[in-house]
Amino acid sequence: MNHLDAQLAGKKSKFALPTRRLRKLEILWKGSTLHFDDKFWPRKKKNLSTPNKIKIIVVPFALVILEPAARAHGLTHAA
């Protein structure tokens, strides 16, 4: 919560959990539903006693984040 509060206040804060770069993530769990992409997953009718799996794959160059030209060249805009 301290990290999120600092981010919302525009302050720098070291994130307490380790981070990893990845291209593929598989999450396995059993016994509950998740709230995933604004929907419950798996759907309520599914048997929750069997393991569930979410697989997320990041395709190279599928997401490109562009930075405004003024910032990319080290220029700043005075307010």
Describe the protein in words.
The protein is an alpha+beta fold and 79 residues long. The chain has one domain (24-79). 14% of the residues lie in helices and 23% in strands. It contains two helices and four strands. The chain has helices spanning 2-8, 69-72, and strands at residues 24-29, 34-36, 39-41, 52-57. The strands form two sheets. The protein has a two-stranded antiparallel ribbon with strand order 1-4. It has a two-stranded antiparallel sheet with strand order 2-3. The longest helix is centred in the first third of the chain and has 7 residues, at 2-8. The radius of gyration is 19 Å and the shape is extended.
Outline of this structure?
With 79 residues, the chain is an alpha+beta fold. It is 14% helix and 23% strand.
Q: How would you describe this structure in keywords?
A:
79 residues; alpha+beta; two-stranded antiparallel ribbon; 2 helices; extended
User: Rounded to an integer, what's the Rg over CA atoms?
Assistant: 19 Å
Please give the number of β-strands: 4
Q: Report strand %.
A: 15-25%
Average pLDDT figure: 76
Shape category: extended
Largest sheet: 2 strands, antiparallel
Assign the structural class, choosing from mainly alpha, mainly beta, alpha/beta, alpha+beta, or little secondary structure.
alpha+beta
The count of helical stretches stands at 2
Roughly how many Å apart are the termini? 31 Å
Spatial arrangement of strands, main beta sheet:
1-4
